[in-house]
Amino acid sequence: TDSAGTDGVKLCHDIEEAKDHFHNLFQVEAVNGGFNTEVLCQEFLQGKEYVVDTASRDGEHKTVALWCYDKRPANGSAFVYFGMVPVESDSLEAKLLINYTKKVLDALGMKNGPGHCEVILTAGGPCLVEMNCRAQGGDGNWRPLSRALTGGYSQ
Predict the structure, then answer these.
(1) Which of 8, 1, 84, 95 is nearest to 48 (CA)?
(2) Which of 7, 11, 95, 151 could form a disulfide with 31 if both were Cys (CB 3.0 to 4.6 A apart)?
(3) Which portions of the chain are predicted below pLDDT 70?
(4) SS3 of 125, please?
(5) CB-based contacts of 121: which residues, under 8 Å, 6+ apart?
């Protein structure tokens, strides 16, 4: 839970593989340095993964950017980031994801600051992967693209 990206993420196909991977995560160094003291297990969600970046003030939430992750299997891993593709703000997916994300922010009591929400759009609807009270990305390499797409705005 103190790492980033898909560090340590693995699609396990049975309980034994899940147990082995769970125990292994305490033995390997995390991408941010240090060693894991906690592990989060999540169910596998089938669908596209989206990012909804927001800015909130006094409980009013504005969507700054909406992206679809381009994740593919590569180099023995089931989930490798190849990039992010912007999503049109007037698309059906955008309307659904923006509404869902506002409800998540309200449910968590996030009233002020940036928000970074990752959601998988499953056949049954949106499902939360993670919500963080932070701006998008760790290295800021997305900012020039975000500014170009939004007319100069970013988180």
Answers:
(1) 84
(2) 7
(3) 1-7, 138-143, 145-146, 149-155
(4) strand
(5) 47, 48, 50, 93, 96, 97, 127
